[in-house]
């Protein structure tokens, strides 16, 4: 398996000629160093959550159009993408497999980042 990172959160997984793209967000495309056409062979795009650094709708539309890639995500992302005319296969629990890839979603909680100085 080959894994390539594109700038921030965007990861391309390649195995046996198949490609899955994770989180093509705005940071990956902002400076023009990466173009959506790089992902012309992607069959599946997996979006983890609806933050701009993980989801760039303009770039995603271009990527999907290149090969009619399937978008996999959660209800939150699906609701947002529906507003932009993009269909999403919702998968939030249990294992998911495609070709020789397999992944299992997990829920993660976050908390606000503290701006207070650290003290020992």
| Weakly predicted, low-confidence segments | none
Strand content: 25-35%
Strand order of the largest sheet: 1-2-3-4-5-6
Give the CATH class.
Alpha Beta
Can you write the helix and strand succession as a string? EEEHEHEHEEE
What is the overall shape?
globular
Please state the structural category: alpha/beta
Number of helices: 3
Assign a percent range to the helix content: 10-25%
CATH architecture: 4-Layer Sandwich
Question: Oligomeric status of the shown chains?
Answer: single chain
Q: Biggest sheet: strands, sense, closure?
A: 6 strands, mixed
User: What is the average per-residue confidence, as pLDDT, rounded to a whole number?
Assistant: 89
Would you report the number of β strands? 8
Terminal residue distance? 43 Å
Number of domains: 1
Rg of Cα set: 15 Å
Kindly report the name of the CATH homologous superfamily: Ribonuclease Z/Hydroxyacylglutathione hydrolase-like
Examine the coordinates and then state which fold CATH places here, giving the name of the CATH topology.
Answer: Metallo-beta-lactamase, Chain A
Question: What are the key terms here?
Answer:
single chain; 120 residues; alpha/beta; Metallo-beta-lactamase, Chain A; six-stranded mixed beta sheet; two-stranded antiparallel ribbon; 8 strands; 19% helix
Give the gist of this structure.
This protein has three helices and eight strands. The chain has helices spanning 26-29, 57-67, 75-82; strands spanning 2-6, 10-15, 18-22, 44-46, 70-73, 89-90, 96-98, 101-103.
